[in-house]
Specification:
Nucleoside Triphosphate Pyrophosphohydrolase; 22% helix; 138 residues; 3 helices; 41% strand; seven-stranded mixed sheet; alpha+beta
Length: 138
C-alpha cells in the first residue's frame, strides 16, 4: 500500500513598519516571520491575516505571495519530514491588539529589525531572502 506524502502547511507574513520588518523569536532561538499553520478548510491568505492578528495584534492586507519553501525541522513531532512554508507580503492597516507572548509553541518574543540588521541575526536564510524580496517589491 502506498502511503501518501503529507506535510503541514504554515503561512508567514512579511510586515514592514517604516524601514523595519517584524520578526518572532521561536523555540529554537531563531528569528522567524510571524505566522502559523493553516486551519482545516482555510485559505492561505485568510490564515496569514488571522495569524498576524493573533500573534501581533495587527490588521493586515495580503499583497502577494512571495515565496514557498520546504523546511525540515529535525526532532520535531510533525515537521521532521518537512513543513511547507508559504510567505506573503502584507500591508499593515492598523494595530488593534497586543503581542501574543505565550503562543502554541511556547513563549514568544517580537521585535522589529532593519534590513541592515538581518545579516547578523540568527534566522533561516530563506526568511531573509523573502524579506528582501518583499522590500524590493514594495
Amino acid at each position: 500500500m502506498n502511503e501518501s506524502y503529507r506535510i503541514p502547511v504554515s503561512v508567514k507574513g512579511v510586515v514592514f513598519e517604516g524601514d523595519s520588518v517584524w520578526l518572532r523569536k521561536n523555540e529554537r532561538n531563531e528569528w522567524e516571520l510571524p505566522g502559523g499553520k493553516i486551519d482545516s478548510e482555510e485559505l492561505p491568505e485568510a490564515a496569514v491575516v488571522r495569524e498576524l492578528k493573533e500573534e501581533l495584534g495587527f490588521n493586515v492586507e495580503v499583497v502577494d505571495i512571495i515565496q514557498s519553501h520546504l523546511l525540515k525541522i529535525p526532532n520535531s513531532l510533525d515537521e521532521a519530514k518537512g513543513v511547507l512554508i508559504l510567505t506573503f507580503s502584507c500591508k499593515l492597516l492598523s494595530k488593534s491588539g497586543g503581542f501574543e507572548l505565550q503562543g502554541e509553541a511556547g513563549t514568544a518574543e517580537f521585535r522589529k529589525f532593519t534590513l541592515k540588521e538581518l545579516g547578523s541575526i540568527n534566522s533561516q536564510q530563506f526568511y531573509k531572502e523573502a524579506i528582501v524580496k518583499a522590500h524590493s517589491d514594495d
